[in-house]
């Protein structure tokens, strides 16, 4: 990496340390202003503390000495904030067997065979990413499918949405699961497939990743995130996450100076509140905070675990999985709220969303509407429930690429008459509620650009379907960028620090290879990040991307 050219500007006698400021100049700056309108600028002045002094127009006098970085006319945006991601899962998945994108059970078996041969020392083979919807067979996998390839050691493969796993017979034996084992409430077992709450039967005996594996996974995840221009993440727990081990991994990286991406952590349920009795302060120069508690109200649509008001169109004997009674859900939420935590609850089906809105309405009457109750996904919602969000101060935390990935499945699961409140971003905004965007990585790629593209087009990266799916729910580019920056910052109680390049906020920004205001949705989906900066330091550069996590602060 070349050092930026040094150039003294302005008066030499100002009482600032010599060349302590950085001026990023000659850029096409674009961000969403406080009023929601797109704002343009040509330069960014950064203080020696890594915070924004101000943005500049072409005629503005800088007024202080600064080290100048030439942006070569490239487009500069605030760093993206992913409001819902799984950082350790992203890194661990990259280190484990990848069965994502497979087109048949045979292809999964081939990858498993190759992986087993290449990793003879691995005691448990753990993989991630299958989706039976993409398979020629269109059926769920079974223990027998895996046994025919690997029978000498346990194999556990997780579905892409994290709501189901398939285990081979060696794993069932290790877990003591037999044909007479009953699934726990909120779970299901069929031929080696463990859905939602039943997964714990297997996962409780899986060996935990070692400390060095966790450190490696975090480094890997950060390298990926920075290459996609993601500078902050609201990190959601999954039901069986070793939340404390993950937190300790982030904290260790913070102390070692290797934590680049800012992380806001949400625990899995109330168990960690025994030691974390209140949200933490920001740690490591605003790089880490424990802010909230994550709950689940239901499962996912793919495995028919989403809890619906009416039966599934393609399986009329079920309405999905209700995880908690109203009283139990209220008791859990009340426990977190009483400790001062924000609450983020997964709800996919319309019944789960309605239940949760009622719970949050009750909490708002007791604690006020400023506690920023979050619903994660908010995918399938009865339109009558959407106007209930804003009065209770509820944030919809949504993932636009779920819409493009799930579209055909959602049509099959729900039929044509229940899609009016599906992935309804525009309806959320029109109702006056707050919207935050993310990707739910590694369920989807952490790359924000396909999401922005979907948000403005309701089309996938190939332009399907023509005209967009339920196009009335399209957003403007400004609304989509807002949800991915300011909206996501607000959803993490971080809008005073990040989400916009404004005086006093962190200089977290990216340079990209095209101007999103001048291109169509398909081109936007292909945008590439050239550089990523956090706290005024370059932490990723595509031209020298061999070791993106090595550079920077
Ligand atoms: Zn998630």
Overall description:
The protein is of the alpha/beta class. Helices cover 27% and strands 21% of the residues. It has 15 helices and 24 strands. It has helices spanning 87-95, 105-118, 143-147, 169-175, 200-203, 211-227, 243-256, 326-338, 350-367, 400-414, 425-430, 448-457, 477-484, 486-491, 521-525; strands spanning 21-25, 28-32, 38-41, 43-46, 52-56, 66-70, 75-78, 80-85, 97-98, 125-130, 155-159, 164-167, 187-190, 193-196, 230-235, 262-268, 288-296, 342-347, 374-377, 395-398, 434-437, 509-512, 529-534, 537-541. The strands form four sheets. The chain has an eight-stranded parallel β-sheet. A six-stranded mixed β-sheet has the order 3-2-7-22-23-24, with helices on one face. A hairpin with a 5-residue loop joins strand 4 and strand 5. Zinc ion is lined by residues 84, 86, 236, 440.
Low-confidence stretches: 1-18, 546-553
Bound molecules: zinc ion
Mean pLDDT over the residues? 93
Number of helices: 15
Strand order of the largest sheet: 8-15-16-17-18-19-20-21
Shape: globular
Helix content: 25-40%
Integer-rounded radius of gyration:
24 Å
Q: What separation lies between the terminal Cα atoms?
A: 14 Å
Number of strands: 24
Q: Class by helix and strand content?
A: alpha/beta
Provide the β-strand percentage band.
15-25%
Mind sketching the topology for me?
Blueprint: E1 21-25, E2 28-32, E3 38-41, E4 43-46, E5 52-56, E6 66-70, E7 75-78, E8 80-85, H1 87-95, E9 97-98, H2 105-118, E10 125-130, H3 143-147, E11 155-159, E12 164-167, H4 169-175, E13 187-190, E14 193-196, H5 200-203, H6 211-227, E15 230-235, H7 243-256, E16 262-268, E17 288-296, H8 326-338, E18 342-347, H9 350-367, E19 374-377, E20 395-398, H10 400-414, H11 425-430, E21 434-437, H12 448-457, H13 477-484, H14 486-491, E22 509-512, H15 521-525, E23 529-534, E24 537-541
Parallel strand pairs: 1-6, 2-7, 8-15, 9-10, 10-11, 15-16, 16-17, 17-18, 18-19, 19-20, 20-21
Antiparallel strand pairs: 1-4, 2-3, 4-5, 7-22, 11-12, 12-14, 13-14, 22-23, 23-24
Helix pairs in contact: 1-6, 6-7, 8-9, 10-12, 12-13
The structure holds zinc ion.
